[in-house]
Amino acid sequence: APLVVMRLGYLGPPGTFSEEAARQATAAGGVELVPFASIPEAVIAVDRGAVDRALVPVENSLEGGVTATLDALAWDAPDTVILGETVLAIRNCLIAREALALDAIEAVISHPQPLAQCARFLRDELPGAAVRAAASTADAVRTVGEAREPWAALGPHGAAERYGCRVLREEVDDEPGNATRFVW
Known about the structure:
Elements: E1 6-11, H1 17-25, E2 31-36, H2 39-47, E3 53-54, E4 56-60, E5 64-65, H3 67-76, E6 85-89, E7 93-96, E8 107-110, H4 112-117, H5 119-125, E9 130-133, H6 137-146, E10 151-155, H7 157-162, E11 166-169, E12 179-183
Parallel strand pairs: 1-2, 1-3, 8-9, 8-10
Antiparallel strand pairs: 4-5, 4-12, 6-12, 7-10, 7-11
Helix pairs in contact: 2-3
């Protein structure tokens, strides 16, 4: 078995943009990726020594600072230090369990950041859909995949494949060049 050099925490479950960033940043291997249910949990895990490092989103080009990360670093784990950063291009997709007409979608679920990053798309293309927050993009896609209701999620292309869903629309971000800065 390959030697695990480092345990790296990220916002899970698998299929999030955070996992995508972690995989991109650790392409050389030697890393065990450990999903956490929230950003603060990932940061606190570093503070407690449960993981060696965590890769967490700190700033988005459209929405600014990621409050959960900034608060966790300031209040929950003030002795934790930032060691570096990586930037991931964010391309949100509209994802559903099966092919749906946009006007049939009753609710759109995602992490609050993508909901804000795609607010104009949601307002213009899905004016009748309720907007609901989820703990992560992958949680949202998983929820949509398990639901019988005509719901959709905003999240990464890879999450659609992972949770047996279909991409209805690619790149629904309000601005091209959407990117998120992650810190170690």
